[in-house]
Design a protein that fits this description.
Layout lengths: L1 E4 H4 L8 E4 L1 H23 L12 H6 L5 H19 L3 H12 L4 H8 L3 H20 L2
Antiparallel strand pairs: 1-2
């Protein structure tokens, strides 16, 4: 355990407030200070003193463009159509495609969880995708 002063970290403390924290927390705080000082040094070296953002939202609009209602509607319709097509799949294929593409699990991890061979998972996903292509291609 190590003692730290909260007044050094938070400007709203008017007096010294000492607390004991674990050594891991102190190391993480030190790592953050090093990363922040490295960032400030890079900004200084590259003369990146100013941001183009004037707090009028221009920079935010460029970084995070707003989507139109047409785009949102098309995405919603596509998701609805995809979900309807996936519901027509066999349960195994549905579960494996969902785990792989929506949850980001690898095929090896799915095989390990289901206690089957990876080749069976791969074939199931491939056949499920072919069926999805047929279902979505007919509409």
């Amino acid at each position: 355990m190590k003692k730290i002063n909260l007044r050094d970290m938070y400007p709203f403390y008017q007096t010294d407030v000492w607390i004991e924290v674990d050594e891991e927390i102190v190391q993480e705080m030190r790592r953050f200070e090093l990363l922040e000082s490295a960032y400030k040094l890079r900004a200084y070296r590259h003369r990146a003193y100013y941001s183009l953002d004037r707090n009028d939202g221009i920079e935010n609009d460029i970084l995070f463009p707003s989507r139109s209602t047409e785009t949102e509607y098309e995405e919603m319709a596509f998701r609805r159509e995809l979900y309807a097509a996936m519901c027509r799949l066999p349960k195994k294929s549905f579960r494996r495609i969902y785990a792989h593409y929506f949850l980001g699990m690898s095929k090896v991890a799915i095989a390990r969880v289901e206690q089957v061979d990876e080749k069976a998972v791969r074939k199931s996903i491939e056949s499920g995708l072919k069926k999805l292509k047929q279902f979505l291609g007919n509409k």
